[in-house]
Amino acid sequence: MSNSKHTPESIELTSRPPFPAPAPNVTPAPTTPDVPEAGLLNNSGELNPSLLHPVDGGFHAWAFLGASFLIEAIVWGFPDAFGVFLDAYLTDPAYTSHPHASSLLPLIGPIASGIVYCVAPFLSPLINRYPNHRRTAMYVGLLLCWASLFAASYTTNVVILLALQGVVYAFGAALLYFPSLSYLAEWFINLRGFANGVLFAGTGVGGVVPPLTISKLLSMYGPNVTVRILSVGIVVLLLPLMPFVKGRIPVGLAGHVQPVSRGSSNSVKSWMGSYFFWILLVANTIQSFAYFVPILWLPTFASTLNLDSTTSSATLAMFHTGSVIGRLTMGYLSDSSLKQCFILASSTLLATSVTIFVLWGVFSTNLAGLFSFCIIYGLLAGGWPSLWSGFGKGLTLNDPTLSMTLFGILLFTRGIGNIASTPLSAALTGFSSASPTTSFSTNSSSSSSQMSAKLGFNIAGGRFASTILYVGTCFAGAGMIVLFGWGREVYYHHHRRQSAGAASENVM
Q1: Of 180, 93, 96, nearest in space to 135 by CA
Q2: Which single residue of 144, 202, 227, 475 could bond 353 by disulfide (Cβ 3.0 to 4.6 Å)?
Q3: How far apart are CA 380 and CA 409, in angstroms?
Q4: How far apart are CA 71 and CA 443, in angstroms?
């Protein structure tokens, strides 16, 4: 894999600097104060890199990555597992007796994850400008996560639950998550794609393990005690990890700690003129508007096949298992070259489209076909965020501050897609957007008609056909956009070679 970084094709694709250089006043983001200052400066007062912890390996780098992986899994585990809580809430009269409970309770999970996504472009500039406060923000975020869930365990008021578990938890999770993410570019350079894949794989693990654990706790103790246990568990699991989530460059070195321009605005403005930035942004947005739709409706689709609730929930476990493998694989492969990223992105997006049309639209008429779709969809579609680092190396030029800014923009558009997926898919299917996992019973056809369906398009009287067409088309569109960007890059270099050859002949 490492040899592929020096192939003529990869050198050719990266020989032209197609991306704007960062603004001259941008400085690498400084980090935690736990590295001693003595001996790190040479006689000229400059930072001596040889005395810092190594990048792309070593105990401190791997310890950071492992701790950040678990933070990712736990932070995103609650929103991903909220469907388990939702079933418990909607069957408990203490909650359903409140006005609008059936419409407000299902919003808690999407609001929690949507806020975490959407605050990224607003929180990232603050992290960049005040990097020495990142660890403080993480401890505040951990405190908010605990307090929001612990307080929520003592109320049955639906509005208060929405505020605590949806809004307050989300802001705490964002303060915990984004500072840890900002350290990634300091510890990993050549292996940044792989490290990014490991980090995002935590989301997949968070979608598998917490739901299973929470389901058992709910059956034993009920919603209130389970939420209380979860709040304490988050602190017990994350607090010992906090010392390992730190930066590589120490804070406090004279001449190396300066507030960074808010949001690296000069560089972001220069990105606006880069076609490559728009290719990445538009493809990411379209992918996000489609990606979350199958995740939302897979349990409902499974229930139309007369599968029990446990088996229906297992569809999400299959998806998240595939996404863990996909994110690790895509991250590792994306470290090779920009050309490799183009190939991976276009091929996986187009392959995902085919998977949706064929495996979901045709063969998902039984458990085996549906599970096959879930795993392959997670493997292909779930790996997309792991490609961000590979694409972003040219835009950010290995500047940690710019990397964080770019991630914030991409996460924001992903968050919009996450929030919009519920009303969009509800309109396409005709099911109630309030509780998709429980509304089928009033809209389903008979059991015999479900089992006699010849295609996945025909399940539930064809009510998922428009959804399948929508999701498959979006992935195909995103793939074609990336393919266009790759073709433009290849054409430019071919034209440049011809111009260089003509110029050399004139010289001779």
Answers
A1: 180
A2: 475
A3: 22
A4: 40
